[in-house]
Amino acid sequence: MKKSTLLIADDVLINREMLKDIFDGKYNILEACDGEEAIELLDKHKTEIVLVFLDLVMPKKDGLEVMRHMSLNSMIDKIPVIMITGEATVETDIKAYEFGAADIIYKPFEPAVVRRRAKNIIELYQHRIYIEKELEIKTKELYESKKKIEESNEFLINALSSVVEFRSLESGEHIQRVKAFTRILLNHLKALHSEYNLTDEKIELIVMASALHDIGKIAIPDNILEKPGKLTDEEYEEMKKHTIYGCQMLEKFKQEDNEFYRYCYNICRHHHERYDGRGYPDKLKGEEIPICAQVVSIVDVYDALVNKRVYKEALPIDEAYNMIHEGKCGIFSPIILECFDYAKEDLVKATNMYLQNQEG
């Protein structure tokens, strides 16, 4: 069985010999007579060394400078240091512990005590390293498992939401565009307005939830959903109910404490609300409208303007921007419009990419 390695760094030969005798061939021993030599040996053998005995006072570099080097090079958490000193003062003890020492022993050495404390510290650090590696493996496995579940969920959500597009004779790209535009706008909102407490994880949940914004259209009759011309007042009132129908569907799978469910519900119900209270179905006003719904609302309008629908031709991007800013498509919050402007370059790139794919 391969022996573990100890490093003994002390400028006094007799001290190094005493420590070597204490461990009596049970370890490979590396010796350094000053701080610079100790650093060289640490850099060369850092994967082999399981413990360092480090004198506080040494020429060239002292023990604290060696520990500073270990800290800067991510060694101090993996290789324990027992500081050896003849200066038993509170000040030096505090400094040693602040720099990362695992223990302190005082000269002259008591062999049995040194042997036991060294064994305990080595075992403690080795066990901690083992636990950290196991935790890293488990974390990676959980992440991969979570990622597979999320991919499966996204597939099912996309498949379900595409049913609406299939019925309404859309190209099938609307959902993907809304998701892409939602992500772009949310990233700008996160950068510009920290008060909404958006995180990368929340953004991804909102993006996924945005795919279900029109799920209620499944319940809208074909003669209304597929009508190429302008809807009558009665037909329009029925079309508006898709926000309610969608939520009725979602409520069958209600999960009160589930953040993703709340995003799905709020987006589905409120993506046609308007900041001035003239939207539907609940006529919410201002910040009563959940921010996730506000974002999906404006990108849904934008996508409807710049793409061809059964009832209209596509508009140029600049014209769509002007219409949104002029309030011709409903009123949006100043914050959302600000982010919409900051996001224009990214939105234009994404829009052109989708338009090119359609032509191809």
Word description of this protein:
The protein has two domains: 132 residues, 3-Layer(aba) Sandwich (Rossmann fold), CATH 3.40.50.2300; 192 residues, Hypothetical protein af1432. The chain starts with a strand and ends with a helix. With 360 residues, the protein is α/β, with parallel strands linked by helices. The chain has a five-stranded parallel β-sheet, sandwiched between helices. It contains 15 helices and five strands.
Descriptive terms for the model:
Hypothetical protein af1432, Rossmann fold, alpha/beta, 360 residues, five-stranded parallel sheet, 2 domains
Can you summarize the main beta sheet? Answer: 5 strands, parallel
Number of helices: 15
Number of strands: 5
Helix/strand order, N-terminal first = EHEHEHEHEHHHHHHHHHHH
Helix content estimate: 55-70%
CATH C-level class of the largest domain is Mainly Alpha
CATH third-tier fold name of the largest domain: Hypothetical protein af1432
- Note the gap between the termini: 66 Å
CATH architecture verdict of the largest domain:
Orthogonal Bundle
Outline the low-pLDDT stretches. Answer: none
Q: What is Rg? A: 33 Å
Oligomer: single chain
Strand order of the main beta sheet, please? 2-1-3-4-5
CATH fourth-tier homologous superfamily of the largest domain: Hypothetical protein af1432
pLDDT averaged over residues: 88
- The SS-based structural class is alpha/beta
Number of domains: 2
Q: What shape does the CA trace take?
A: elongated
- Share of β-strand residues: 5-15%
